[in-house]
Amino acid sequence: MATLLIALFFAHAISAAEENSERRAASYVPRLADLMVVIQIRHAKLFYAAKARNWPAADYELEQLVASLVEAGRYYPNTAPPITPEKIRSALSEAIKTKNEVKFDQAFDEMNAGCNRCHVAADRAFIVIRRPSYPSAFSNQQYGPRPIDRQK
User: Does pTM surpass 0.85?
Assistant: First the structure.
């Protein structure tokens, strides 16, 4: 009888722990900064795929980047960027489908400008997104001060 009671106690404890774990996972909200790091990685991978003319990979990375932006907007609706994820998808997708590197560059630069406008609006003007400049996951961010800030 004692063994049965102990087994029931542990079964209940395990069940309760699993329930609490599921509740915590369902209520987890990633930090905006963590989502932005994922977006920055997707941003670089999108650029490198297009530059290598790997259009299927570029299309995949674009969809992943847009999905991450949508997720960020869902969790942080008050930080809506000046350029919508759908506008980003539309312009870049067209360039990718037509395999047009010039249009891709234009759309990519417009996306970067939108990112930077959002950073300025969020009082994070020191985060400057650009085209990746060398093979690194984080070469798409300028780490020095903005040229205008250097003069101050």
Answer: no
